[in-house]
Design goal:
This protein has helices spanning 3-14, 22-34, 48-59, 74-78, 112-115, 119-124, 159-162, 176-186, 201-212, 218-229, 243-259, 267-278, 286-290, 295-305; strands at residues 38-41, 63-67, 79-84, 89-94, 101-105, 126-129, 132-135, 141-146, 167-169, 237-239, 283-284. The chain is of the alpha/beta class. It comes from Alkalicoccobacillus murimartini.
């Protein structure tokens, strides 16, 4: 079975639970295939938690949920060393971060100190406790949900934390027809209870290896870097996108190419992913805020200015 067909099976399985959100499901899988993580921001009740559960079940992966609250401690996330009186040795008790798929629910409701406990895990795939480094299971994927920061009782994520998420997406309210479909599916029982895995974690790791092998033409890389540099020294942007953002956009574009059954990246892949990958990495200037411009609008302006290259597929001589 082709890689794109396997990914399509996963998407179709998730859509049995998440109705009318094809684009958001695809973006979540782009992050998963690229080895990144997702920040899912929206108001309560639109299906953020169900999205993560459906992904975990579709992969047959170990799943843990961390409910972030103001009194949550870093050790509640990463784990803790406890002294065993019988053996007279310290034993490490794993925290919920030690899983394949982790739902960091309402991450902006906990303190910055606890939020920072995720930094090492998101970037390096390990956690350090009492001076000892513990490797996390692979694949490792975090989908963090948050309510919009203007709601009471929240702690906005700092720039360093936001930069660790490959992309940020929003689900939004369903259409009238989609909401009717949700009611029909939930009338007797929740479809998440009937969901079964369609691929396993070993197959997912193989797909990640295939993503890494996707070809990116030098002209595409140049196009990508030009977009990134347009976010720096821009009067509308106080803090532009870092080199980590450049790498993230290339990885995501390669994953999207595989999802679409291609062995190479197109400029359209870059354009489609520019907003979800870059918008949360930028800090807008006072001028932009006074003009009521959003990060999305500024990125779209940049895309309209940067010349799109004519992509070339790699030709292998025989």
């Amino acid at each position: 079975m082709r890689s794109a067909e396997k990914v399509e099976m996963v998407i179709a399985n998730i859509e049995r639970v998440v109705v009318g959100k094809r684009q958001e499901v695809e973006l979540s899988l782009v992050a998963l295939l690229a080895g990144g993580h997702v920040l899912l921001e929206d108001v309560p009740g639109v299906g953020k938690t169900m999205m993560v559960k459906a992904i975990a079940k579709s992969l047959g992966a170990n799943f843990k949920r961390i409910q972030f609250t103001p009194d949550l401690l870093p050790s509640d996330v990463t784990g803790v060393s406890i002294y065993n009186q019988k053996t007279q040795e310290f034993e490490f008790k794993q925290g919920p971060i030690m899983s394949n798929i982790v739902l960091a629910d309402e991450i902006n409701r906990t303190s910055p100190k606890t939020q920072s406990a995720l930094l090492e895990a998101l970037e390096e795939g390990n956690v350090t406790i009492d001076g000892e480094t513990h490797q996390l299971q692979q694949p490792f994927f975090v989908m963090a949900t948050q309510n919009p920061i203007e709601y009471a009782g929240t702690f906005p994520l700092p720039e360093a934390q936001l930069d660790r998420f490959l992309l940020k997406i929003k689900l939004g309210y369903p259409t009238l027809q989609d909401e009717l479909e949700v009611l029909n599916r939930l009338e007797n029982q929740h479809p998440i209870d009937q969901l079964e895995s369609v691929i396993d974690t070993t197959e997912l790791l193989t797909l990640r290896e295939q993503v890494a092998a996707i070809f990116v033409d030098q002209d595409i890389k140049n196009y990508l870097v030009q977009i990134i540099h347009q976010t720096r020294g821009n009067d509308l942007i106080e803090l532009g996108v870092s080199p980590r953002g450049s790498i993230a956009l290339m990885k995501a574009a390669k994953a999207l190419a595989l999802l679409n059954g291609r062995e190479y990246v197109l400029p359209d892949d870059i354009k489609r992913l520019a907003v979800p990958v870059l918008a949360h990495r930028m800090t807008l200037s006072t001028q932009a805020r006074m003009s009521n411009l959003s990060a999305r609008e500024i990125i779209q302006q940049i895309l309209s200015r940067v010349e799109v290259p004519v992509s070339r597929r790699r030709v292998t001589s025989t």
